Amino acid sequence: ALVECDKKILTGFIESHFFAGFSGGGKAVMPGMAGLRTILQNHGVEMIAHPKATWGITEGNPVWEEIRQAAHLIGDVFLINVTLNKHKRISGVYAGDLDQAHSMGCQAVRGSSMVKVDTPFDIVITTNSGYPLDLNLYQSIKGISAAAQVTRQGGAIIIAAECRDGVPPHGEYANLLAMADDPQDILALIHSPGFLMRDQWQVQIQAQIQLRMDIYVYSEGLADEQILRAKMKPCRDIIKTVAQLLEKYGRDARIGVLPQGPQTIPYLAVGCS
Questions:
Q1: Residues contacting 38, CB < 8 A, separation 6+
Q2: Helix 200-210 crosses helix 183-191 at what angle (to 10 degrees)?
Q3: pLDDT by residue (tens digit) across 210-221?
Q4: Which of 92, 131, 136, 244 has the highest Cβ tally under 10 A?
Q5: 258 to each of 5, 124, 141, 205, how far by Cα in Å?
């Protein structure tokens, strides 16, 4: 139906995205209007594992490159994308050619919501930017991923997310987590030949982070047992958890805070580790 239309106008808003680089642009076509098999392949294990499949990168990012290619397959389109400020009000409108308009919007978002950090932190406290973005633990992996960009190897992330919708109750996220005992086994399962399952990208990103650092979850919507089944560590008091981590890392440990979670993306300066 999309291909048969005489006029094609794509709408959406641009923000940093944890494996596509940025939202908006061709994402209105794929995954927005694509078939399930196409989406699963685009979100496949090798695509997600690529080092450029991360926040703020489009060129050379295989996930984004395929999204752009899919959008161009449908012929000429007119793009209308917006950017939003912290009050969810429109801060910019980018319209016209698919690639040019989206590129300009991405540059604006990169300048307003991405911040360079010179030295990684031992502990990063983050959120998933509150309601409705922290409806469940599945969505909250985005806030965890944002924090992971500037957390040192062996460090710790603490995420505060309400998760009023639980883990969530639908989708394959919880089922996938239950199929293996630890992050290493989860990645081995996802990398096994022919494995392809909905929501595996979220589990893969979580597991990749957990190989490098610990994740603590503070949530009024989740029981400790649910957090443990998700392979993460429960936190019922952030101040106490930070105090315990300071005992582990030392009183001079570096602490970073991301109040807006995935809405403000830090990244390490070149040469940092």
A1: 30, 31, 70
A2: 140
A3: 999 999 999 999
A4: 136
A5: 43, 7, 14, 19
